C-alpha cells in the first residue's frame, strides 16, 4: 500500500508524549499521532485495535471495507504501514505518476505504504465475501540501528508497493492481528514488530554488510533477568529490557537469544510459569491472584498459557502439587 540492587526501576517507556489521548484515555505516542487522521480517510469500518494494550512500537487495527470504492487518496504518516488482506477478493488499482497499476487482493495478500507517502486507490469486490483487512503501523524508531547509526536514512528508502510478495511479512503481520484478539503483551507485540522492521530493512533494502553487535555480558544478562523477576506482575516491554541492557532493540533481541538460547518473550514466559507453579502450591492463593502476580490480565489468559506450558490447568496442577495444610 511501527530499584534497588542496581536495577532499573519500572517505568512506562514511550517514544514521546503528546497531550492527545486515544478514546480509551491512554496517551497517543508521537509515533502514531497521525494515524487517526489517516483512518478518517479510509472507506472502512474499524473492528479492533491494539491502542489500549500498551504496545509501544506498533499499532494494529482490523477493518471491513466497502465492496466498491471510487478513487480516493490516503493521508501520509511517519510510519511504515503494512496491509494484509484477511478476507474477500477484490481488484484494486493504485495511481502513481499519472498511471494506474492493478492487482488482485485475496486473503494473505500484502501491500506496504512507505513513511510520508500517499496512495491514490480504488477497488471493486470480486464475489460476495466481505472484504476485511489488518493494518499495522510500525514506529520509525524500529528502523534505526538495524544496520548501524547511519541507517536512519533507511526510512526514506523503505518499499512502497501495492503488492508485496513476501510470506514473512504476511505471516508476522497476521501474527500481530492474532495478538490484538489475544490481548498479547507489549513484549510479544513489540518483539514481533522489531523483527518485522528488521526483516523489511534486510530483505527489501539494498543488501550490505551488517555490523555485528556486542553480546550480553554476564552482568548485563543478570540485570535483564533480575528486571524480569522484579517486575513480573507488570506487562514488561521490549523497550524496557533493551534499556536495561543499554542496546538497541534489534541488537538486544539477537544478543539475548545468543546468550540464553531463547527469545526474551519465551524466557519471560518460562519465568512466569515457574513463579505461577510455586504460587499455586500454596492453597490460600486463588488462581486469579496468581494470574495477577504473574503478569496476566485475566485468569482465562493465564489458564490458557499455563495449560500450554504444563499440560494441565492451574486447578489440576494445584490438586496434584499443593502443599499440605499448615505448611
Task: Offer a concise description of the structure.
By secondary structure, the chain is α+β, with helices and mostly antiparallel strands.
Report on this model:
- This protein is of the alpha+beta class.
- It has two domains: 4-204, Sandwich (Jelly Rolls); 267-321, Homeodomain-like (Arc Repressor Mutant, subunit A), CATH 1.10.10.
- Helices cover 36% and strands 18% of the residues.
- It is built from ten helices and nine strands.
- It has helices at 35-40, 167-182, 186-204, 218-230, 238-245, 249-260, 264-280, 287-293, 299-310, 314-321, and strands at 44-49, 58-65, 68-73, 80-87, 90-96, 99-105, 110-113, 120-125, 131-138.
- The strands form two sheets. A five-stranded antiparallel beta sheet has the order 1-2-9-4-7.
- Helix 2 (167-182) packs antiparallel against helix 3 (186-204), helix 4 (218-230) packs antiparallel against helix 5 and helix 8 packs across helix 9.
- The radius of gyration is 22 Å and the shape is globular.
- 37% of the residues are buried.
Total DSSP helices: 10
Mean pLDDT: 83
Integer count of domains: 2
Helix share of residues?
Answer: 25-40%
- CATH-assigned fold name of the largest domain: Jelly Rolls
Beta strand %: 15-25%
CATH H-tier superfamily of the largest domain: Jelly Rolls
CATH class of the largest domain: Mainly Beta
Q: Which architecture name of the largest domain does CATH use?
A: Sandwich
Number of strand segments? 9
Low-confidence stretches: 2-19, 21-26, 207-214
What shape does the CA trace take? globular
N-to-C SSE string, H for helix and E for strand: HEEEEEEEEEHHHHHHHHH
Strand line-up in the sheet with most strands: 1-2-9-4-7
Quick one: biggest sheet?
5 strands, antiparallel
Distance between the termini: 62 Å
Strand-pairing-aware structural class: alpha+beta
